[in-house]
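Example (one chain per record):
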Amino acid sequence: MSAQTSKALKSPGHSGRTIAILFLVIIGFSVLAVFQSATKIKLGLDLRGGTSVTLQPRVSAGGKVTSAAIDQAVSIIRQRVNSLGVAESEVSAQGSGSNRQIVISVPGETGRRIVELVGQTAELRFRQVLYEGAPSATIAGTVTTTPKTATAPAKNVATLASGVTQELNNKFAALDCSKASNREGGGVDSPNSTIISCSRSGDAKYILAPAEVLGSQVSTASAAIDQQGASGWYVLLNFNGDGTKKFGALTTRVTKLATPLNQVAIVLDGLVVSAPRINEAINSGSAQITGNFTQTDATDLANVLKYGALPLAFDRGEVQQISPTLGSDQLHAGILAGLIGLGLVLIYSFLYYRGLGFVSFGSLIVASAITYLSFLLLGKWIGFTLTLAGIAGAIVSIGITADSFIVYFERLRDEVREGRSLRTAVEAGWARARHTIITADLVSLIAAVLLYFFAVGGVRGFAFTLGLTTLVDLLVVFFFTKPLVTVLSRVPFYAHGRPLSGLSSKSLGVVTGKEA
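Predicted structure:
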C-alpha cells in the first residue's frame, strides 16, 4: 500500500477535531467581542460622517510658509493619525501658495479628541527652571520686610530670583496662568531664549532658561506604567547619542544647585508638562514625562512625539461635524450586492456540484462569520472602520473563496474519474489543489499589501479588507473545507456516488460499461 493511500485511509477523526477546534475559536472570539462591547462595525467617513478641522499655518514675523513645510506637516500628521489606530481618515493640504491649509477629517464621535492631538506642534524642550511661582504671581522673587526706623516706616522689598532680569520679571507679572485663554494654543517657545511659561494645568508659572535638549534628539517614545503605582502612567523617552550627552550634562549640573534651580522643566508646545527635581545625574539616555496621565493620555502623547515636531505652528480653525457623503442607502446597496453575489455563488454550487454544494455553503458561512468578527474586533483594537471601498474588497473576497473550493472540487473529481475511491481521491486531489490555492491567494495578498502601502484614502480600505479576507480564505480552506470533505468521504451518500452527491458517474461525465 502506498504512503498516499495509507494517508487517505486514516480515520477522519483528526479532521473532525480540526473543525471542532475552529468552531470553538469562533465561539471564543464571539464571546470576547461581547465582553469588549464590540457589537457594531465601525463605519468610515463616507458612511457615518465624523469630525473635520482646518489647520491654518501661523506665520511668524519675517517668516513664510513654504509648500515643502506644508507637505512635511501633512506627512507627520497622517503618521500620527495612523499610529493612533484611526483608519480611513483623510489628511490633505488645500489652497495654494501662502494660503495653503491642512484639513483633517476623522470618522466617528471620537474625532474631536484625535483632531486636537494631531494638530499639536509637538515641540519638546528640556529647560532648567529659574523660578517657579503661583499662576498669578506678580514678581519673580522673594519679598522681605525692612525694619522700621526712626525716619522711615517698615516696607516690603522685593528681591528678584537669581538670573531673572527686570524685563523678565515684567513679562512674568503680565502673564496670568490661571486664565485658560492664556494657555490655549501653547506658548511662545524659542529654544535659544529664556521664556515665561505656564504649566498645562494652569497651577504654576515658570521662568525657564534656554533649552538644552530638544525633541529632535529623542529617538523613541512609548507609554508605560509605574508597576509600583507611584506615578501611574508616564511617557518614556530615549535620546539619541547627542541627546544622551546633553541631557547627562544638564542633569549633572543642576544636581549641585538649590531649588528651583535643580529642577528641569519638560516643555511641550510652550507649556510645562512637568518640572521634576533632579537628585542625581541621568546618563542612561532616557527620561520620563509624568503628569497624572491616563493610559490614553500617555499613549497619545507618545504617538505624537514619536514622529517628531511639525515644521510649522498652526492655529486651529472651527471644528465641525461632517455628515456622511454616501449614507445608509449606499451602505444597504453595498450589503445587498454582497448578499446577491453570495447567493449566486451558492446557487451555482448546488446546481453544478450537487451535494458538494453543502461544503461550499458551509465554507462561505464560516468565512463570513470570521470576517464579521474580524471587523468587530479590529474596530475595537486598532480603530478599523469600514467604508464602501472596504465593502467592495469584502465582496471581491467571495470570488476568491469560491475559487478555492472550485479548484479543490475539480481536482477531487479528476481523481475519482481516474478510478480512485473517494477516500483516496480526497487526499490526492488536495495534494494537487493545495499549491494552486496557496499561489492564487498569495497573488491577491501581495496585490493587497502593495495597494495598502502605496495608496491613500479609500483605496487603502479596499486593500485592507481584500488582504484580510484573503487570509480568512486560507484559514477556512485549510481548517474547514478540506477537513469537512474528509469527513464526508466516509458518508455512504458521497462514498457510493449517489445521483445527488455530485460524485455520480453522470455528474463526473464517466460512461460506465453498462451505459456503453
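Caption: Residues 1-10 have pLDDT under 50 and may be disordered.
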